[in-house]
Write a structure and sequence with these properties.
This protein has two domains: 186 residues, Beta-Lactamase, CATH 3.30.450.80; 55 residues, Winged helix-like DNA-binding domain superfamily/Winged helix DNA-binding domain (Arc Repressor Mutant, subunit A, Orthogonal Bundle). Helix content is 53%, strand content 11%. The chain contains eleven helices and five strands; from the N terminus they run αααββααβαββααααα. It has a five-stranded antiparallel sheet with strand order 2-1-5-4-3, with helices on both faces. 35% of the residues are buried.
Length: 260
């Protein structure tokens, strides 16, 4: 893991440059390989720091609310800010937390409701503490009511952040679920979820959905009706314990059941 971690930390680039590094092994693959080798919560913490540096952003945060007996976080915010956040009970006014409890898709912070006075004051204090003005958060829901939140943020222009998000949103979705799966394995290894295997048709259906094909296009590729395709997708969702199709796709990725 240390070799991959060193490489990640030494490829820091600015989002404005569109992170143009191209190599046989991508930064995403390097991160996932290193994550797979992690053995302790401290390893995950080190990798979250490396993730921040690799993608050239200001902060990266993974926070699991109820994976283990106590909440777990791996993050790059300062301890002082985290303590202040807790003491001030900012969780009650934080639009990111409110949005994550209601949504399943990645959330760009600009699309959240910051109109309330408490939310605006919170944002001002957060920015002063180094949290940054641009952000993307991914809600994560696991079996048995597990809930976690993965966030990246940075200080850059709207145009630069939009470009970065367009390029790397899928990376962040995959990373968020892989981190969550690894944290579960490390913290509560005895809670091995009953992972029923997907059939080849179910796997192909989710893979083509992940690639952006429409249901009609997938039906044509697999030479099945759209009704049959819907049966395969619903069956895969049931096996994965997913609440919707997007959740099924990201869960399948995080468990290594589908890949490109």
């Amino acid at each position: 893991m240390m070799r991959s971690l060193w490489q990640l930390r030494n490829w820091r680039e600015c989002p404005v440059r569109k992170l143009a590094w191209v190599a046989v092994v991508t930064r995403l693959e390097m991160f996932l390989d290193a994550l797979e080798e992690s053995q302790t919560p401290d390893d995950v913490q080190s990798l979250v720091v490396a993730l921040r540096d690799s993608y050239g952003i200001s902060n990266a945060v993974y926070h699991a609310v109820n994976v283990g007996p106590i909440p777990y976080a791996a993050l790059t915010y300062t301890p002082e800010w985290m303590q202040y956040y807790h003491d001030q009970k900012f969780v009650q006014v934080d639009p990111v937390v409110k949005g994550a409890l209601q949504k399943f898709h990645p959330m760009d912070w600009k699309q959240l409701d910051w109109s309330g006075r408490g939310s605006r004051e919170f944002l001002g204090e957060a920015i002063a503490a180094g949290v940054c003005n641009q952000g993307l958060s991914v809600p994560i829901r696991g079996p048995n009511g597990q809930f976690a939140l993965f966030t990246i943020n940075d200080n850059c222009s709207d145009a630069s952040w939009e470009m970065f998000s367009k390029e790397f949103k899928r990376d962040m979705m995959l990373i968020s679920h892989y981190i969550h799966r690894r944290v579960v394995d490390i913290i509560v290894p005895e809670q091995d979820v009953n992972r029923r295997d997907l059939s080849p048709r179910e796997t192909d259906s989710l893979k083509y959905l992940a690639l952006g094909f429409s249901r009609g296009q997938i039906s044509e590729k697999l030479k099945i009706s759209e009704h049959t395709l819907r049966v395969y997708i619903d069956s895969a969702r049931g096996k994965l314990g997913a609440l919707n199709t997007i959740h099924a796709v990201t869960t399948a990725f995080s468990r290594g059941l589908i890949s490109f």
